Amino acid sequence: MQTLTLGPSGPTVPALGIGTWAWGDKLYWGYGGDYDEAALRDAFKAAIEAGVNFFDTAEIYGFGESERLIGRFAKELQQPVVLATKYFPLPWRIWGSAVADALTASLKRLQVPTVDLYQVHWPFDFLMGQPTLMNALADEVQQGRIKSVGVSNYSAEQMQRAYDLLAQRGVPLAVNQVQYSLLARQIERNGVMDAARRLGVTILAYSPLAQGLLTGKYTPETDTPPQGARRLDPRFSREGLEKLAPKVGLLKEIGQKYDRTPAQVALNWLIAQGNVVPIPGAKNASQAAQNAGALGWMLSEEEKGAIAQAWQ
User: Fold this and answer.
1) What domains can be seen in the chain, in order of their start residue?
2) Which residue intervals define the domain NADP-dependent oxidoreductase in the entry (predicted)?
3) Known active-site residue 163
4) Among 31, 35, 61, 180, the one annotated catalytic
5) Measuring CA to CA, which residue among 186, 154, 157, 193 is closest to residue 275?
């Protein structure tokens, strides 16, 4: 199993995790429609069986339901897992004690005394401010309820600021979780990737399959619309899919050489960038097993270059 340590001293995880935004989320993903708790339980088991035991969630996902489901599944299976969740900086959370309260609630839903990675979901300041926020997180590290600290959706400058504030307390910044896929490569150009490498901060890549667009499932020919709010995304329209078809075709062509799917090729390309852990979603056992198939093999330098050029 390929592994990677998050930040300089965070947990060691598989080079690929599972993102659980869709777990319990009815508003965007339509939880309870074409997938339910039983399907997610199967996805959890399939991921564990494939060696992928790193799960990323957040207090806001399904308004806590994602955390509750993961806590329940982990308890049932009694297998070691690495858990990451997130604190949402709501406007009325203006005191450092809000971090402790939110963490307490997340730990209760996850049914654990400590979490491996606790991240700030967005770089909002409002009235609390980053110094108060980072000090509150450092306090929780010292108390043992957080093993490592991360941020999410932070720019290069914001990440540097968080890194500096935590360093004053002797706490390393482990990760910056950002959108990163072949369809979303902004971090390669806006300084986030360079800053992360310089600071030793790991990139957690969310939406690494662009919400399914890189899987090959959605094509102009099949005309299978996605569920939930994705139906409103113009990229899933017939015209949008026609534009993507040649690029997805390249992923399919390269994948045939390795007996891999376009999704597995797209995920492998991200892993090959180094210091990147993609966290694709999985709503059933089949998707969890397919995600794991991105591990254990490597694209050639020529193939990585060809993919990068095609998806510029």
Assistant:
1) 3-212+262-299 (3.20.20.100)
2) 16-311
3) no
4) 61
5) 193
